[in-house]
Amino acid sequence: MVRFTAAVGIVLIVLGVGAYALSGAASVTALIPAFVGLPMLGCAALARSAAGRKPGLLVALGIAVLGALGSAMNVLKIGDAIAGTAERPAAVWVSTVMFVLLVGYVVVAGRDQLKSRSTSAG
Fold first, then answer.
1. For the chain, how many structural domains are there in total?
2. What average pLDDT does the chain have?
3. Confidence at residue 120, expressed as pLDDT on a 0 to 100 scale
4. Per-residue pLDDT tens over the stretch 81-113
């Protein structure tokens, strides 16, 4: 799970920096995926130690939930982006990619947390 957390963090950082560069550095908001990915990468680094594994992964899970909720607003505009009528189509696409990554992370991490609880409880 630590490697998966690091991978998602790195992908989000690349997504944010790429969006920022491709937008001509017009707005810092293009870096939002990187602002979510960087603390997730930090959580993965914390989770490499035995003592930091559980808190690091739980904080990463919380960050992923908040990031998914924050990006959901633009995801609702995906129909407009597909139709070509969105006001900021690049932001909609980047938010959608971020949302899909984070929801996938939440599902995998949530299952991992439930699995670890059931094996430690029994």
1. 1
2. 90
3. 64
4. 888 888 888 888 999 999 999 999 999 998 887
Q: How many CB atoms lie under 10 A from the CB of residue 73? A: 11
Instruction: Please state the φ and ψ torsions of residue 84, each to the nearest 5 degrees.
Output: 85, 15
- Find where tokens 């998602």 sit: 8
Q: What is the identity of the amino acid at 33?
A: P
116/119 Cα distance (integer angstroms): 5
Pull the structure tokens for residue 120. Answer: 């430690």
15-22 mean pLDDT: 92
What does the pLDDT look like over 31-44, one tens digit per residue? 999 999 999 999 99
| Domain that residue 28 falls in | 2-121
**Cβ 96 vs Cβ 74: under 8 Å:** yes
Q: Which residues contact 56 (CB under 8 A, 6 or more apart)?
A: 2, 5, 43, 44, 45, 46, 47, 48
Q: What pTM was estimated for this model as a whole? A: 0.87
Q: At what angle do helices 89-121 and 2-22 cross, to 10 degrees?
A: 170
